[in-house]
Design brief:
It is built from eleven helices and eleven strands. With 264 residues, the protein is α/β, with parallel strands linked by helices. The strands form two sheets. Strands 1, 2, 3, 4, 5, 6, 7, 8 and 11 form a nine-stranded mixed sheet that branches. It is globular and about 50 Å long. The chain starts with a helix and ends with a strand. It comes from Zea mays. This is AB hydrolase-1 domain-containing protein.
């Protein structure tokens, strides 16, 4: 039987390519590969994979005001419910004509993976920064949703010269014990794993209800297919959730140099 979510992926990929984006896989270090949807001017004749020593096409071209490289760079970082292209499928079409869009898959989402044992948001931010550096992005505006918002905060804290501004929705700077407990109580979930890594239709419906601005009705078949496709690498993702929680006594709120827009 056809999985509707799996069948949607080629269609979504085609739409993104028609909009001028291309899938790029790059090895950031041995054992760590990140997949990013990026503007097509980064892709050379060799295809959509950048080797560790291969310069990007963007660096080979002359920059001018009319070139795509002169547009503002915007990075969209997804949450825990889905990989990059699925999370931002309703947004890239209206943004791509005005901005250079970069949509990475965080580690253990989509085609991104690592052999590193580090499961912290700091590590995810380092990987995003490394991928952007390889693509020749020196300055960008970052949009983060939920888990991606925490990664965005870490990216802005660690790379103030890279991140010009932040737009974060449904996220916090640090997920402390107290914040996690209050959030789970408010959402009616027993734990972050129960909320963010559902294995039942009821759990998935609860997750999507809090992650969507406008509630939408879907048949149960849709939810079943979504569970089969979107929640892979369960062991590693559980470890990512464990890596999120910070002790109240250890939590430090940085002073960000960038302008920020926050939406809860």
């Amino acid at each position: 039987m056809v999985n509707f979510i799996e069948a949607q992926k080629p269609v979504l990929s085609r739409l993104m390519k028609m909009a001028g984006l291309r899938p790029i896989e790059m090895e950031l270090e041995p054992g760590t590969t990140m997949h990013v949807w990026a503007p097509k001017h980064h892709v050379g004749k060799k295809g959509t994979t950048i080797s560790p020593l291969e310069p990007t096409a963007a660096k080979k071209k002359k920059k001018n005001r009319k070139s795509p490289e002169s547009r503002p760079n915007v990075v969209l970082i997804h949450g825990f419910a889905a990989e990059g292209n699925v999370t931002w499928q309703f947004n890239f079409g209206v943004l791509v004509s005005r901005y250079n869009l970069y949509i990475p898959d965080l580690m253990f989402f989509g085609k991104s993976s690592t052999s590193s044992a580090d499961r912290s948001p700091d590590f995810q931010a380092e990987c995003v920064a490394g991928a952007l550096a390889r693509l020749g992005v020196a300055r960008c505006d970052v949009v983060g949703f939920s888990y991606g918002g925490m990664v965005a905060f870490k990216l802005a804290e660690a790379r103030p010269g890279l991140v010009r501004s932040l737009c974060v929705s449904g996220s916090v700077v640090a997920m402390t014990d107290a914040v996690n407990r209050e959030t789970m109580e408010r959402l009616g979930a027993g734990s972050s794993a129960e909320l963010l890594m559902p294995d039942t239709l009821k759990g998935l419906k609860a997750l999507l209800s809090v992650s969507m601005y406008r509630k939408m009705w879907f048949p149960d078949r849709f939810y079943k297919d979504y569970l089969k496709v979107m929640f892979t690498n369960r062991k590693e993702r559980m470890e990512l959730l464990q890596g999120l929680i910070t002790s109240n006594t250890d939590a430090k709120i940085p002073v960000f140099q960038q302008g920020s827009m926050l939406d809860d």
